[in-house]
Amino acid sequence: MKPNNSDPKSAASVSTVLRIGLGIVFIVFGTWKATTPVAWVIFLPNWVSNAVENIEAFNALGALRMMGFVEAVLGLQILLGLFTKATAAICTVMLAGIIFHVGFDQVGVRDAGLLFAALALSIAGGGPWSLDHWLSSETETESLL
C-alpha cells in the first residue's frame, strides 16, 4: 500500500503547529529579554554593546529591552498568523545573525532548528487557520460584491 503524502489537512496542521511552536518561543524569549535584560547582556556581541553605548540616553540594557519587545511582537504575529511569510523571514534573518555570532554550539544548534522552522513558515505561510487566511478570505468576499 502506497502512503498518501498529499493530505491537505496534514499540510494545514504542519503550518499551524510550526506557527504555534515558533510563536511561543519568540514570545517567551522576547518577554524574558524585555523584562530581565541583565540576564541577557552576556549574549550581546561586544560590537553591539559598543555601538549602543555611543548613543546618548541608550545603553546595552535598553537595546536588549527593545530587542525583546520586537521579538515578542514578532512571536505574537507568528502565533496569530498575521503577515506570516514576512514575519517569519525577519525571524529567519535574526536567527541567522545569532547563529553567526554564537557559532555552532548548544545555542547555535538550537537556533538552527528554530531558523529552519522560521524558513519553512516564510515559504509555506500561515495556513488555513491563520489571520492571513481569514483576511485574504474577507478581501476575496468583498471583491465579489
Provide a descriptive summary of the structure in words.
- By secondary structure, this protein is mainly α.
- The protein has one domain (12-144).
- Helices cover 75% and strands 0% of the residues.
- The protein has helices at residues 8-35, 46-53, 60-80, 84-102, 106-124, 131-144.
- Helix 1 packs antiparallel against helix 3 (60-80), helix 3 (60-80) crosses helix 4 (84-102) and helix 4 runs antiparallel to helix 5 (106-124).
- The N and C termini lie far apart (47 Å).
- The mean pLDDT is 86.
Key traits:
145 residues, 0% strand, single chain, mainly alpha
What topology does this entry show?
Layout: H1 8-35, H2 46-53, H3 60-80, H4 84-102, H5 106-124, H6 131-144
Helix pairs in contact: 1-3, 1-5, 3-4, 4-5
At a glance:
The chain contains six helices and no strands.
Rounded radius of gyration (Å): 18 Å
Q: Uncertain runs with pLDDT below 50, 5 residues or more?
A: none
User: What would the principal axes of the Cα set say about the shape?
Assistant: elongated
Helical percent range?
A: over 70%
How many domains make up the coordinates? 1
Number of strands: 0
How are helices and strands ordered from N to C?
HHHHHH
Beta content: under 5%
pLDDT average, as an integer?
A: 86
Structural class: mainly alpha
Q: How large is the count of helical segments?
A: 6
- Termini separation: 47 Å
Biggest β-sheet description: none
